[in-house]
Amino acid sequence: MLEEALTPDYVYYYLQCAKDTIISLASGTTFLEISGTKAALIPIPLAPIPEQRRIVEEIERRFSQLDAGGAALERAKANLKNYRASVLQTACEGRLVPTEAELARTEEREYEPADELLTRILKERRATWETEQLAKMEAQDKAPKDDKWKTKYKEPVGPDTSELPELSEGWAWARVEQLGNVQLGRQRSPKNRSKDFPTKYIRAANITENGLDLADVLEMEFRPYEFERYQLKSGDILLSEASGSADQVGKPAIWKNQIPNCCFQNTVIRFRPERLPSEYFLAVFKNFYVNGTFSKVSSGVGINHLSANKFAALPVPLPPLPEQHRIVTEVEGRLSILDKIEVAIMANLKRAGRLRQAILKQAFEGKLVPQDSNDEPASVLLERIREERARKAEEEKASRKPARKKMAKTKRGQSKRSQPAERKPLLEILNSAADHLTPEQLFNQAGYTPENIEEFYEELKGKVLAQKIEQERPNDTEVYLRAVGE
Hints:
Blueprint: H1 2-5, H2 8-16, H3 19-25, H4 36-39, H5 49-92, H6 100-107, H7 114-139, E1 172-175, E2 180-184, E3 198-202, E4 207-208, E5 211-212, E6 218-221, H8 224-230, E7 237-240, E8 242-243, E9 252-254, E10 263-264, E11 268-273, H9 278-290, H10 293-297, E12 304-305, H11 308-312, E13 315-318, H12 321-363, H13 378-399, E14 407-409, E15 415-417, H14 426-432, H15 439-445, H16 453-465, E16 469-472, E17 480-483
Parallel strand pairs: 3-10
Antiparallel strand pairs: 1-13, 2-11, 3-6, 4-5, 7-9, 7-11, 8-12, 14-15, 16-17
């Protein structure tokens, strides 16, 4: 008869908003589970059958509207991802802002093309190297007698442009290693555990698509001579060198000295630009990341690696220096707007989830649809079900054959007939109790045995549904029972 009192969809939607009640009845250490007997104790607000159907129809109508809105928000979220990629792509192709060549013609002035900028950078890098090397030799009293030592400098070569696309006027192709220092981080191993010089370091796990996540930064040993080599400085670009997924390799972020005296691990590549704005290279590397350039050059079995050498050899589009700054300003402005839009989309998606719960709450408080006085009251329906169950129980009891009494042997080999425990009505026990009882106390005092636990919960459920017994739950683990109206 229970199926005549509750429609399946009505029960389905109610259980979606009864999470706290269900958890309070569940048990388990590794994971929570709920038994059939405990599930039968879940209280459910009973509405007339016609009203149940109206509630389900209204829930599904409103959920359908929320689903349509959620799908539109998800499409907008996907479009944001595509638009970000488009902004980065056009920035690296010289189509996001007016080029320096165009502005120079309009304003009738000269400008430094990218190829001249690159020549100047390479010349300055060589001069810096020679100064540093000379200082080291003089500190060791090994002053050079001639200039042969200068031949040890390895001039970074430019890229093969035969298969590269043509760039905007005033731009030039350059390899990453021509434009700055490429360095792989220090390996993490047992011998490098923190001891005398514990130092925080960045690993690939700290680099996300939204920047650096510094909530979980580890430490390991960096001795003074190692610290000088692996120390991060503001403006360094950090890229994830390794990942289990090829499309996650090369994820870039910019270091802004968030943690003083911090180093980096060998799952990270550091790029330190040479007299050029770090933010421009962040935009370039983000473009390489989203358009698949990094994933194409990565390799490995199980773990994909970008490798410092492959990264250093990648060709980079280089615009004139003033244009780099304008590109950075425009990219940051547009991406900032997109970030705000995404925050609003995520907030609305969460709001849709809350609205679903609000709809369910209204539904099972009787506030979602109008009530009809012509509907059979739930109390009448419930009483009819109770009477029908009682009648069937009496019929089954009358038709049941007397159980054959079993003989139980005593320790001395004698035997005696086992006597069934005397049962007492649940309401009688609760009415006579000085205080409310737990289900276990009621079970024992009613004279039930473990073999009859299903009968106990069936009788208890019937009394609860008939509103003869009320459940009190002071917390998530305790349940107390008391008689009502007796």
